[in-house]
């Protein structure tokens, strides 16, 4: 199953990149990985995510992606923590933007249905990461402000 998930993300990122002809082909440096959210009620929610680390990966994000399973997402790391600003330009999927404060606490969740929009959504403070998942995914999975995000090797 783990190989299947990594293979899915490799194909997913390659397809997204090839649609945007001005971007170089996707590289294997953005493999799918496990991310855990622990709710305030103690429930754990496991997601498969790709990490957008480089400036190019962060600029491209989920642009041109046509569909995404409910338990998948993309994490944009903010090093050092900073105020984050996101738009939906060339983004075909409605998304939940989950703003993660230093220490891993979810500070804000914003659902955006306005695909292909240049309207900006900003964090309300410094964040160490932003997690994007399919719109309404946070509500359906029970993810709320105050929940904690963790990863085996990434410190939030």
Description:
The chain is an alpha+beta fold and 156 residues long. Helices cover 19% and strands 35% of the residues. It has a 7-stranded mixed β-sheet. It has a two-stranded antiparallel sheet with strand order 4-7. α2 (55-60) links the parallel β2 (44-52) and β3 (72-82). It is globular and about 35 Å long. The model is unreliable at 1-30 (pLDDT under 50).
Strand percentage lies at 35-45%
Strand order of the largest sheet: 6-5-8-3-2-1-9
* Number of helical regions: 3
SSE arrangement, N to C: HEEHEEEEEEHE
Give the overall shape: globular
Outline of the structure:
This protein is an alpha+beta fold and 156 residues long. It is 19% helix and 35% strand.
Secondary structure topology:
Elements: H1 2-19, E1 32-38, E2 44-52, H2 55-60, E3 72-82, E4 85-86, E5 95-100, E6 106-112, E7 121-122, E8 127-134, H3 137-141, E9 148-150
Parallel strand pairs: 2-3
Antiparallel strand pairs: 1-2, 1-9, 3-8, 4-7, 5-6, 5-8
């Amino acid at each position: 199953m783990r190989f299947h998930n990594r293979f899915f993300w490799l194909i997913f990122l390659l397809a997204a990149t090839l649609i945007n002809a001005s971007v170089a082909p996707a590289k294997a440096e953005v493999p799918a990985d496990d991310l855990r959210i622990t709710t305030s009620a103690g429930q754990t929610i496991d997601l498969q995510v790709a990490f957008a680390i480089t400036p190019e990966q962060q600029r491209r994000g989920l642009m041109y992606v046509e569909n995404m399973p409910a338990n998948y997402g993309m994490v944009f790391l903010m090093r050092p923590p900073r105020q984050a600003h996101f738009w939906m330009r060339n983004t075909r999927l409605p998304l939940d933007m989950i703003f993660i404060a230093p220490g891993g606490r979810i500070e804000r969740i914003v659902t955006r249905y306005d695909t292909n929009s240049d309207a900006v959504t900003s964090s309300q403070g410094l964040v160490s990461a932003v997690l994007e998942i399919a719109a309404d995914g946070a509500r359906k999975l029970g993810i709320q402000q105050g929940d904690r995000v963790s990863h085996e090797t990434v410190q939030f």
